[in-house]
Amino acid sequence: MPFVSLARPAIGISILKARLAEEGLRCTVGYGSLFFAEWVGQTAYELFLDRISPAMFSGDWLFSQWLFAGRDHSVYLATLRDHLGEAGGSAFETVLAMRNQIGPFLEACLKRFRVDAYDIVGFTSTFEQNLSSLALARLIKTRFPQKTVIFGGANCEAAMGLELHRQFPWIDIVCSGESDNSFPELVKRLRAGGKLDGVAGVIFRQGGNSLLAAPPDRIHDMDRLPDPDYDDYFAALSSSSLGSGIQPNLLIESARGCWWGAKSHCTFCGLNGSTMTFRAKSASRVLAELERQKTRYGVNRFLAVDNIMSHEYFRDLLPMLKERNPGVSLFYEIKSNLKRHQVELLRDAGVMALQPGIESLSSHVLRLMRKGVTAIQNVQLLRFCREYGIVIAWNLLYGFPGETEEDYAEMSRTIEAITHLEPPGVTAPIRLDRFSPNYDQARDFGLVDIQPFSMYQFLYPLPRESVANLAYFFEYKFADGRDPASYARPVIERVEEWRKRGGDLIKRYGTDPELMVEDTRTREAPRYHRFNGVQREIYDFCEEIQSRSGISEFASAHGAPADQVDSFLETVVSQQLMLREGNQYLSLAVNCDRQRARDVGAQAVLF
User: Fold this and answer.
1) What is the pTM of this model?
2) In b/e form, how buried is each residue of 428-454, taking b as 16+ CB within 10 angstroms?
3) Strand runs (DSSP E) across 153-218, as ranges?
4) DSSP character for 216?
């Protein structure tokens, strides 16, 4: 159901469809999202994904105002109008006009998806899919009381799933947690009229109470999972009036959990609520799946849904992809402390887009959030990705308990030196997510007055405690009364300037032994810095992070006196040609000679 990207099939239920097929059970995946985009127009649909902040829950509200008719929506609408601003008048009017289309759309879904022909109707719900799913589910249960309605997905994990089941009687069963094995078992028991006791992760009613049949199970051998069956998505796309304008990306899952989170759970991260244990498919299985899915669907753009790439893949999968060159373009999330040869291998393997966990350019703040990386390592990755032509998406977060004003003053100076690299897509205060250490141990982190996001009150006409159980996002205050925006302001403003500023910092090698660094980062005339002899050698040596002692040893081997090395390093740091953090140094100029693209066909990857 809405609201999700139209360019991506739903991987979770597509795996479930394939699992059911293995058990001899027939199933169809219906794309209410694509149908709704046809109903209201693609531009109007994508307004909720691209123009309106997720914090407004506008997609959920649109279906809530139909589901819970008769409520006063004036406060929400005023808030939405303020959020969109004066320039958003047309967007606001579009949202208003869509209110009256929800009922007819839901009615049309009954016919479009032939609901009367099925025994079970299941809904997958993540982020802003709860209210659209609840709305259609109630209509189905009203018209077809004999149908079994089942909910699953990230919005059904732990307390959220139990509360959904308690509050909405038209939901017969909720599947909480991984359901690759339990869902086929559930379907078989329902078909046989058997009891549900003992089915992992299944929430059902007994004596008027919502009961968890057994704790959720998890997949241990990822290779045993079938390839996702996306046939229904491509059938819907080919018959849709919008199909020609949508360039699909295939989702692939090569791992679950987070190997870094199992070691050091990042304080703000609420992913992997009950499934942190890391499990990955073998390299041969991933390669085979990529080749099968590319052939089956004629698409070569793959987005990995993994929370973090397996570090084992640098030893097996990536070299295999490089050697085989199956002609695919990949997106992965990854830890940011990569070496140059690893980034080069990613590019050569067809990984053309990354979302690394950068989050900050302050080593102190990174330690507070337990990222296991430093600021200079993050800058190094930004430069590597620029050099190897890899698209990089990252966010800059602030507001971590324990951070200081000096952290942001230092970060502002760092940003001034790297405006030729990719800026963050979002600069925002940390959000308090369910399952994160910040949420579970809020008082230990100095966070108080924890409340569900204020927008939830406009979605669910339920008691406060029930809304808190359904919520995934929470608001908070700092015990010490701090206002992070006040001391982060210089960085916020610097990033805004960074996004607008042009300019570059480029290495240029001629036929002679001279290295010239061309600096156009400022609005002033270009500056040219020329390095010869040992100066060039040192600058190139620091293409990867080097310690002061390592530089001294390197320079000594090239016959450079220590005082000359000190003077050179001081100069290039002051000219912002090199970054220094403690006793570590990194050259900042980009070597464009490395921007050789790998031939993998169309390189566009949609984030």
Assistant:
1) 0.94
2) eebbbbbbbbbbeebeebebeeebbbe
3) 173-175, 202-206, 209-212
4) P
